[in-house]
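Researcher: Structure for this, please.
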Amino acid sequence: MKKEYRIKKNKEFQEAFKKGKSFANRQFVVYTLNKPEQDHFRIGLSVSKKIGNAVTRNQIKRYIRQAFLELEEEVKNHFDYVIIARKPAATMDFHEVKKSLTHVLKVARALKLKTK
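Model: Predicted structure, token format:
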């Protein structure tokens, strides 16, 4: 994932938490914050130490990044997305992570409507 697609600074995370809207399912919480001046989306990841050891946490983060890369065409631009992984995400494989993320992004109306 390119650097300009990432949220790294604590201030940016806090802004998403305070001003953004949150949507959740059992595995993930997603905060969305509209940024009209941005020409692409950015994602920030938060995986707590409660979820598992470093290997598990890094694996979850890799899965989420890969899912976003695959959903890149469908995800709305001009938004910041902060994804917080919950405990059940630790036992999921990539396809389950992608399916769960897609579900929560649909709930958040963060995916573009497909035209047939």
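Researcher: Any notable elements?
Model: The two ends are 29 Å apart (CA to CA). The first helix runs from residue 10 to 19.
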